[in-house]
């Protein structure tokens, strides 16, 4: 019988064992280790994978010879043999051991070391710590005096976008490689006595942006020497988003009241001005007054801009009479893709759309959803200049029962000091922008019970449009 079925199943099985274990191939090369062994030896996972097994067991021979030797001792003494093992610091100790060869192809040697079980918690405090690490809704990281991550909770892994087995015992510089020191959530200055209390911070992993409250403290021994530090952080994204949504809705309501009260008063005189300008334009054209006709054309263009601005004002005012119905997102994208492709081609941008025929049904207004997708795609294309790739993908967020339409550009990204303001009315970085486009998009999505988020790390920007799906 094939015990594993797949390599991922082997890894899953090893993590459930209460003792240290590693798997090696027939050449003695380590192909997998469990977390218990990492804790006991102090190695990081990457420091052991693909290395010879004698990094852990300093045996002068092959893995096959070690297996035969241990098996012979077991048969003679009716008990487990002992082997010498070595920690990362070079300390030697002995442990009872057994090597199992499951019926699998290619053959693997699963080396069990029963006395390397430092991760078994014997007292109440360690039990509480284990519970916090495994299940508590709290980010928790412990760093050694040398700057290596010696403990990290599952919630911290989720918020940081990191895999627990890959980050344990790694140095901070390795764990956050590519992230400048000033932008790291966990900084080396923690080991210099710098502490934080309820400090509000933002963090964006590869898929989501989080708002956090952070506490940190440096740990000292009896002689006053630094032993390490710990960081605690709480995810307050939903609370912060709720407060910001209330504040933004108040601003939109005020703008809406102004718009509703002044839109007709603005449009009435504009209509008269536009009519007379069109008459002048025709007269100038008939009289051959080309320069004057060009002037009227410029004025008419600017009047059309004012009309467009008033229309956006009205969209932010009292709720429109929208008839929500079932919308096929595949049809929506089929109808807007030619427009997006032509815009991309005009700017020298490549388009990558991988969700053809795979999107679910949602409830909403098809025309308004088109407006949202077109606006965000247009922004992305303009942000890239004359080269880059606009990617449109989707994934299902099972926790929220929503489909996320992810629109990513490879432009310069949005600076951190700007990203919190991009949905504010009238905020724009464009010379000729009104600052209402994204505010309108957000209102359209919120009105159908959805969410719109943005993430940017300086190498592109991704808009995540989340919609409840059927």
Account of the 3D structure:
With about 475 residues, this protein is α+β, with helices and mostly antiparallel strands. The protein folds into four domains: about 5-115, Beta-Lactamase, CATH 3.30.450; about 125-235, PAS domain (Beta-Lactamase); about 240-315; about 325-470, Heat Shock Protein 90 (2-Layer Sandwich). Helices cover about 40% and strands about 25% of the residues. It is built from 14 helices and 17 strands. The protein has helices spanning about 5-15, 35-40, 45-50, 65-75, 125-135, 155-160, 165, 170-175, 235-285, 290-315, 330-345, 365-385, 415-420, 435-445; strands spanning about 20-25, 30-35, 80-85, 90-100, 110-115, 140-145, 150, 195-205, 210-220, 225-235, 325-330, 350-355, 360-365, 390-395, 400-410, 450-455, 460-470. The protein has a five-stranded antiparallel β-sheet with strand order 2-1-5-4-3, with helices on both faces. Strands 7-6-10-9-8 form a five-stranded antiparallel β-sheet. It has a five-stranded mixed β-sheet with strand order 12-14-15-17-16. The radius of gyration is 31 Å and the shape is elongated. The relative contact order is 0.07. Mean pLDDT is about 80; it is low at about 120-125.
CATH class of the largest domain: Alpha Beta
* Shape by Cα distribution: elongated
User: Stretches where pLDDT falls below 50 for ≥5 residues?
Assistant: 118-123
Q: From the helix content, strand content and strand pairing, which structural class follows?
A: alpha+beta
Main sheet record: 5 strands, antiparallel
Q: Could you state the oligomeric state of the chains shown? A: single chain
Number of helices: 14
Within CATH, the superfamily of the largest domain carries the name Histidine kinase-like ATPase, C-terminal domain
| First-last Cα distance | 42 Å
The radius of gyration is 31 Å
CATH topology of the largest domain: Heat Shock Protein 90
Number of domains: 4
Strand order, biggest sheet?
Answer: 2-1-5-4-3
Number of strands: 17
Q: What is the average of the pLDDT values?
A: 81
Helical fraction: 40-55%
What's the CATH architecture of the largest domain?
2-Layer Sandwich
Strand-residue proportion: 15-25%
């Amino acid at each position: 019988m094939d015990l594993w079925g797949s390599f991922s199943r082997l890894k899953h099985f090893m993590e459930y064992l209460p003792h240290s274990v590693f798997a090696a191939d027939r050449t003695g090369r380590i192909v997998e280790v469990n977390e218990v062994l990492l804790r006991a030896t102090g190695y990081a996972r990457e420091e052991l994978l693909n290395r010879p097994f004698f990094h852990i067991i300093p045996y002068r021979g092959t893995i096959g010879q070690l297996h035969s030797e241990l098996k012979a001792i077991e048969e003679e003494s009716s008990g487990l043999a002992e082997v010498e093992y070595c920690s990362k610091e070079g300390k030697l100790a002995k442990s009872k051991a057994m090597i199992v060869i499951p019926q699998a192809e290619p053959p693997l040697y699963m080396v069990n070391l029963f006395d390397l079980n430092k991760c078994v918690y014997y007292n109440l405090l360690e039990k509480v710590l284990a519970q916090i690490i495994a299940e508590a809704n709290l980010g928790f990281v412990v760093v050694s005096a040398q700057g290596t991550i010696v403990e990290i909770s599952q919630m911290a892994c989720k918020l940081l976008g990191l895999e627990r087995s890959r980050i344990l015992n790694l140095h901070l510089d390795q764990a956050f490689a590519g992230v400048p020191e000033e932008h790291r959530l966990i900084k080396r200055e923690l080991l210099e006595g710098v502490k934080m209390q309820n400090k509000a911070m933002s963090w964006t992993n590869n898929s989501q942006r989080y708002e956090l409250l952070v506490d940190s403290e440096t740990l000292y021994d009896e002689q006053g020497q630094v032993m390490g530090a710990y960081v605690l952080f709480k995810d307050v994204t939903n609370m912060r988003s709720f407060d910001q949504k209330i504040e933004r809705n108040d601003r939109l309501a005020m703008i809406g009241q102004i718009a509703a009260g002044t839109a007709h008063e603005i449009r009435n005189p504009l209509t008269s001005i536009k009519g007379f300008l069109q008459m002048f334009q025709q007269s100038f054209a008939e009289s051959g007054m080309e320069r004057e006709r060009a002037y009227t054309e410029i004025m008419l263009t600017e009047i059309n801009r004012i009309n467009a601005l008033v229309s956006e004002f009205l969209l932010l005012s009292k709720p429109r009479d929208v008839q929500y119905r079932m919308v096929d997102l595949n049809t929506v994208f089929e109808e807007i893709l030619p427009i997006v492709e032509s815009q991309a081609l005009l700017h020298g941008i490549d388009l990558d759309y991988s969700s053809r025929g795979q999107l679910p049904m949602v409830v909403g207004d098809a025309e308004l959803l088109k407006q949202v997708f077109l606006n965000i795609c247009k922004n992305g294309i303009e942000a890239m200049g004359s080269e880059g790739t606009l990617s449109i993908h989707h994934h299902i967020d099972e926790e929220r029962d929503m489909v996320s339409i992810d629109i990513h550009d490879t432009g310069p990204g949005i600076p951190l000091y700007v990203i919190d303001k991009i949905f504010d009315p009238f905020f724009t970085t464009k010379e000729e922008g009104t600052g209402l486009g994204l505010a309108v998009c957000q209102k359209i999505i919120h009105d159908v019970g959805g969410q719109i988020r943005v993430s940017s790390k300086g190498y592109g920007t991704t808009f995540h449009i989340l919609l409840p799906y059927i």
